[in-house]
Amino acid sequence: MNNQDYLFPGLACIGLAILYPVYWVAEVSIRGLGFDSMSEGIHVLDFIFLATGLLSAYVFFSLRDRLSTENNYFGVDVTLLIYVCSTVVFVVSLFAVGVWYTTYGQGLSGNVAEVTEIVIAVIFFGSLVVFGILEILIGILIMRDSRELPSILTPAAIVCLLMGMANLSIFFSFLTLFLFPVLLIILTYYFMRQPDMVEVV
Predict the structure, then answer these.
(1) CA distance 160 to 162
(2) Three-class DSSP labels, 94-124
(3) pLDDT in tens, 116-129
(4) pLDDT tens for residues 44-61?
(5) Cβ 152 vs Cβ 193: under 8 Å
(6) Which residue pairs, CB below 8 angstroms and at least 24 apart, start in 56-62?
């Protein structure tokens, strides 16, 4: 195995490190924070949102794969799988609800539209709490087993822990605009680096 085996996850990290903050800044600048803006029609930002979520799931699934195949480490395996599944469910469900609301929102009664917006808000803020818990757990587990893992993963675990605390607080979740790209840059190095070679006689 060489570092070319994880070229695509490394490139995904670079792309996502750029795309993630650009998306959220554009989202807030163009459409604001209100969920009612979703009724205005499908926007290119909706597809960028979907892309960032799926790229994020791919990166963390690749992290799980490299930890297990190269480092023979399974201590965070289940947590990473839950994180990947949660990410996919979150982005796909929010995208699907957004498409449905865009298509039928104008014809809905006031009460139904209000309930739909509440559902969207619950999915969004609920996901922050779920991601926060999982990120804290990932950070703690990797830091606990740091001696048997590449040293580059220790700062990654610290950043992941900070991300988790920011998301869990909800109020400080905007800090992930800076923390997530930092984590992705660290993971880029992890994916691109040459694996430690062990010769077996």
Answers:
(1) 5
(2) HHHHHHHHHHHHHHCCHHHHHHHHHHHHHHH
(3) 778 888 888 999 99
(4) 888 999 999 999 999 999
(5) yes
(6) 56/16, 56/20, 56/87, 57/84, 57/87, 57/88, 57/91, 58/9, 58/12, 59/9, 59/12, 59/13, 59/16, 59/184, 59/187, 60/84, 60/87, 62/6, 62/8, 62/9, 62/12, 62/191
143-157 exposure pattern, b = at least 16 Cβ within 10 A, e = fewer: bebeeebbeebbebb
Cβ–Cβ < 8 Å for 16, 22: no
Residue 142: CB atoms within 10 A of its CB come to 24
How far apart are the C-alpha atoms of 146 and 129, rounded to whole Å?
26
Instruction: Provide the CA 46 distance to its chain's centre, in angstroms.
Output: 16
Strand, helix or coil at 167? Answer: helix
Torsion of CA 87, 67, 135, 22, to 10 degrees: -60
Report the distance separating Cα 29 and Cα 26, nearest Å.
5
Which residue, among 59, 47, 45, has the nearest Cα to 16 in the 3D structure?
59
Q: What is the pLDDT of residue 109?
A: 62
Side chain identity, residue 12: A
| Integer Cα distance of 10 and 194 in angstroms | 12
Contact 87, 5 (CB under 8 A): no
